[in-house]
Design goal:
747 residues; 22-stranded antiparallel β-barrel; mainly beta; 37 strands; transmembrane beta strand; 4 helices; globular
Length: 747
């Protein structure tokens, strides 16, 4: 394979960004022991939880945690969101930010027991599932835009390239809506998802848990988890160690899910300097399940049991990933701070897939292709450094942030195997085990490579006009080079490089201490690239314009002290120079071509926090009008996998003591996703669906240890539903009803 070397690209003009100085870390003081050892939430309570402040200044109604600093322990036990500075690169109040951030807190995650990132994000408006590569990757559609490894999933504000990012080491998940290229560079206009890690604390605490689960029919599972944190010595050094092991039967005909996580972290929590370093190692085995296929007569899924697989038991992905990150925050004084962050992520995997390529409903049989990917390797190296602090020009108070970042991303698949299946497969009376894994390497499909280098400088300026108005302006200069292609010998189908300015502007009006109105204009940029050749044979060169997005948005935000936060957003996003993909049933390949433009506009509403002393909630609703607006074939068609209506509601009720020194909590959530187009051509539609979950927790002190029992039911009605589609042969299935019981002990 031909190697490519990229010269260092000029940073050009430095951009604008706004950030307030990070909060200095102050370890919480111990409280006096209460008479009753009953906890306030379902998880074993911290030994020294910080008291909630009774009064705050208007700009402090929402606590924002510094990037390298652990959040107050009380925030781990409530639905009220606590933003992390790694998402917005600022500790200023989100009421002063002209962009929406929706957060799934640690307590919501603990109550709902989400299975993956898609599951956690059912609580957020405007989110649907995309092509998950047979259930092995996080692919999230934000406001109708998204795709495989689109660069929109972050970990502590730094990019991930591994397929799955959500695990037992996650503390919360934050979604930054709309174009975010000012903060993150190359990006689709739908938004950014940031998985925030658990951070070391100076207060010692160890939690061990075991969980058993079942789908019924002998499909059982086990999980063991350890989460330990505390000081090292008597200084400011702290550690955290998260260990997790999952071994469970897959809910369909056959398959196993196994995963091991080892996630240590260290932190120096000084008064002026905070440094946190994380490492995560994953070893995984996933079923590689493309789901079901459609009946060509009706356009509906085949009339077979949802548990019946259409592939073979060797359809699986095995691999490992490594993630190392470090964040440093340092205060110089006079409000000025420095921030340095670095991340390296890599993943390797092998995957076999015997996949459906045709349906014969007369005979009740399928044609299948015996394919595989061996020697896949992906990596992402990223670094950023920036300064922020206040300045005054005349009577104007300003906060500026200035910095730079760079990223090198490689996606490589060594051997692509392609061969015909030897036997006809009956989907009505399946016989498994006749086929063997593929052994034929396709030279023209192998050495698939996508190589991206980008560098940026950015600047953001925020200044106040009086007591109520806040103006935000910023710009990033982005320089990039991308080469993508495949084959032996290697043939580049993408060879592009360019630079661009990406501005952002916003206005905030503080209508009241707990309310704000905002309006914003933002832009995004993403190079149009493809590993596979375009249907026209054209090579995407530097003369081809990147995908560009622009968004107008306005809305309102609410932050009732220690109670509720809410956002209401109206947005209009337009994207041009769009690369369109569509499966070609004649060639059994996916065709790519440069289209024209797409649009997404809608309304989103999110609410989270404490409704009463005992009742907590998290809820959302979104209306999305998304369509391809310029294309020779698909103009006027709905965006792929983008539902017009989505809604969710999660509730938790604290019943209090039952037998004295104990506590009972219970709750549930419901999730609605409307009808969606299953492909770009709108050749079929996935039906809308509703799912519901329940949970109950019981807390008690046993042998001087806090013990928690939690029972969950996922998909209470055992609904058969289809979260996403790729083409008429790849339609994913949502999981069946699942029961789980977890026992958690705190030391």
């Amino acid at each position: 394979m031909k190697k490519y070397y990229f010269p260092l690209l000029s940073l050009g003009t430095m951009p604008f960004a706004v950030v307030a100085a990070p909060l200095a870390y102050e370890p919480p003081k111990a409280e006096k022991a209460s008479a009753a050892p009953v906890r306030q939430q379902s998880a074993p309570a911290p030994a020294h939880a910080s008291p909630v402040p009774t009064q705050q200044k208007p700009d402090e109604l929402i606590t924002v945690t510094g990037r390298a600093t652990p959040p107050p322990e009380i925030t781990d036990t409530r639905y009220l969101p606590t933003p992390d500075a790694s998402t917005l690169r600022t500790t200023t109040s989100v009421l002063n930010i002209p962009q929406v951030v929706n957060i799934v807190s640690q307590q919501v995650i603990r109550d709902q027991e989400p299975r993956n990132l898609d599951d956690a994000l059912i609580n957020v408006s405007g989110i649907t599932q995309g092509n998950t590569l047979a259930g092995t990757q996080d692919t999230i559609m934000k406001r109708g835009f998204g795709g495989n490894r689109d660069g929109s999933i972050m970990h502590n504000g730094m990019p991930l390239v591994q397929g799955r990012g959500f695990n037992a080491a996650a503390n919360s998940v934050e979604v930054l809506k709309g174009p975010s290229s000012l903060l993150y560079g190359i990006m689709d206009p739908g938004g950014v998802i940031n998985i925030v890690s658990k951070k070391p604390r100076l207060q010692a605490r160890t939690i061990a848990s075991v969980m058993g689960s079942t789908y019924g029919r002998g499909k059982d599972g086990f999980e063991g988890m350890l989460d330990s944190t505390g000081p090292i010595g008597k200084g400011k050094l702290a550690y955290r160690l998260v260990l997790d092991r999952i071994a469970e039967d897959y809910w369909r005909s056959f398959g196993m899910h196994q995963e091991t996580l080892i996630a240590p972290s260290l932190a120096w929590l000084g008064k002026k300097t905070q440094i946190t370093a994380w490492y995560e190692f994953r070893d995984f085995l996933y079923p590689f399940d493309r789901g079901t296929a459609l009946d060509p007569r009706t356009g509906s899924p085949l009339a077979i049991p949802a548990t019946r697989r259409l592939d073979e038991n060797f359809n699986r992905m095995t691999g490992q990933s490594h993630l190392g990150q470090i964040s440093l925050d340092h205060r110089f004084g006079a409000g000025w701070s420095a921030h340095v962050n670095f991340s390296y992520n890599q993943e390797t995997y092998d995957a076999n897939q015997l996949r459906v390529t045709g349906v014969n409903v007369t005979k009740g049989t399928l044609s299948r292709s015996n394919d595989a990917t061996h020697g896949a390797f992906s990596s992402d190296t990223y670094g950023t450094a920036y300064l922020d602090g206040p300045i005054r020009i005349g009577n104007f108070k300003q906060t500026i942030q200035i910095g730079m970042d760079g990223e090198y991303r490689l996606i490589y698949r060594k051997d692509l195997l392609r061969q015909s299946s030897k036997y006809t497969f009956s989907y009505l009376k399946p016989v498994y085990g006749l086929e063997n894994p593929s052994s034929t390497v396709s030279a023209s499909d192998s050495d698939q490579t996508d190589n991206l280098h980008d560098y940026s400088g950015f600047l953001r300026d925020t200044f106040k006009l009086g007591e109520r108005w806040v103006v935000v302006g910023g710009v990033r200069y982005l320089s990039y080079r991308q080469i993508a292609g495949r084959g032996r010998p290697f043939k580049a189908n993408t060879d592009i490089g360019d630079g661009a300015f990406l501005p952002q502007a916003g206005l905030v009006y503080r209508a009241a201490p707990a309310w704000s109105l905002y309006a914003s204009y933002t832009q995004s940029l993403k190079p149009a690239s493809t590993i596979a050749p375009l249907s026209s044979g054209l090579v995407l060169g530097s003369g081809f314009q990147p995908e560009k997005g622009r968004s107008y948005e306005f809305g309102a935000k609410m932050a009732l002290h220690d109670r509720l936060t809410g956002t209401l957003a109206f947005y209009d996003i337009h994207k041009r120079n769009v690369l369109v993909s569509q499966y070609n049933d004649a060639t059994k390949q996916t065709d790519y071509r440069t289209a024209g433009a797409a649009r997404s506009r809608g309304i989103e509403f999110d609410l989270a926090g404490r409704v009463t002393k005992r009742l907590s909630m998290i809820g959302s609703y979104a209306y999305l009008d998304g369509a391809t607006t310029k294309d020779p074939l698909y103009a006027g068609k709905q965006l792929w996998n983008a539902a017009r209506h989505t809604a969710s509601m999660g509730l938790a009720y604290d019943l209090g003591p039952v037998f004295g020194e104990d506590k009972l909590r219970f709750g549930g959530d419901a999730h609605y996703v409307g009808r969606r187009a299953g492909d770009s051509a709108n050749s079929f539609f996935l039906p809308g669906y509703v799912t519901g979950d329940l949970f109950a927790t019981y807390d008690r002190v046993i042998a001087r240890h806090d013990v928690n029992f939690q029972f969950n039911i996922k998909n209470l009605s055992n609904a058969v539903y289809y979260p996403s589609g790729v083409n008429s042969y790849f339609v994913s299935l949502g999981e069946a009803r699942r029961f789980s019981l977890r026992t958690m002990v705190a030391f």
